[in-house]
Amino acid sequence: MSVLSPPPATTASPAAERLTVVPARHPWRWVGAAAVLVLVAQFAHGLVTNPGWDWATFAGYFFEESVMQALLVTLELTFAGAVLGFLGGIVLAPMRLSGNPVLRSVSWTYIWVFRSVPLIVQLLFWANLGYLYDTLQLGVPFGPGFLHVGTSSLISSLGAALIGLALHEAAYAAEIVRAGIISVDQRQLEAAAALGIPRLRQFRRILLPQAMRAILPSAANELVNLLKSTSVVYVLAIGELFYQVQVVYGRNGRVVPLLMVATVWYVILTALLSVFQHYVERHFARGWRR
Fold it and tell me: Model pTM?
């Protein structure tokens, strides 16, 4: 029986022992960082010293009562549009994935139309619905009606804004929800069905928790976009934030500071939504590691 001897230890050559490790240097990276810092400092200096920003007027109107009421209207439109839009998207997404060609075609057509038409056109259409239809009736299709409602009294400016925002949001929400559903490995649902797990429990326990990880980032981005899109309803003379600052600077001529009031409030609301998004995503990421 032979015994294998260990290989002889290799000794480093004198030349290798004299090697000096030098870290990589990136001089142009520091030059670029310095240039960016100089530009940021110049911009901040201009914000402080340029009298055109008129920070005194900005501070005077930032918490002004009419501005705060308009901010509340903006939040109401955002919340109602998001809830109604995503409820519609939750209905449209399964229709788009359905094996029924009628449901699939209706969902695809709805999404295509409402994503193609600009939001401002949709708002003006709903505000002028009475031009096309004097009354809406409930009754037998293509037959007599039992209940007649005038469109002029049925849809107000606020109602037109809410309908336009909700229907527009539903088209985008449907694609977000559909992307989340198809991101889940369907073999998991097949395995769950083979184990006899009911379809509703499959949805709640298997599909939804995994789909939410794909849905939430896009949904939060769409919610921020909806918050900013509420400024478009100024065409219907609704007193939301952007409309109200337009009224104020139309009265006093202080355009820039009033626009900054609206800008800063939009930034604050977007930051709050981002914080909320972080915690919701962390909740649905429990037990999952990249």
Answer: 0.79
Task: Give CA–CA dist 92/111, Å, rounded.
Answer: 8
Q: Alpha carbon of 83 to those of 154, 158, 168, 282: distances in Å?
A: 21, 16, 12, 22
Residues in Cβ contact with 108 at an 8 Å cutoff, skipping those fewer than 6 apart: 96
Q: 253, 66 in Cβ contact below 8 A? A: no
The model's pLDDT over 66-115, given as tens digits with 9 standing for 90+, comes to 999 999 999 999 999 999 999 999 899 989 988 889 999 999 999 999 99
| Residue among 77, 123, 64, 51 nearest 251 (CA) | 64
Q: Which residues, given as ranges, of the chain have pLDDT below 50? A: 1
SS (H, E, C) the chain: CCCCCCCCCCCCCHHHHCCCCCCCCCHHHHHHHHHHHHHHHHHHHHHHHCHHHCHHHHHHHHCCHHHHHHHHHHHHHHHHHHHHHHHHHHHHHHHHHCCCHHHHHHHHHHHHHHHHCCHHHHHHHHHCHHHHCCEEEEECCCCCEEEEEEHHHHCCHHHHHHHHHHHHHHHHHHHHHHHHHHCCCHHHHHHHHHCCCCHHHHHHHHHHHHHHHHHHHHHHHHHHHHHHHHHHHHHHCCCCHHHHHHHHHHHHCCHHHHHHHHHHHHHHHHHHHHHHHHHHHHHHCCCCCC
Give the pLDDT of residue 135: 76
Pairwise CA distance, residues 26 & 30, whole Å: 7
Q: Look at residue 225 in the predicted model and tell me its pLDDT.
A: 92
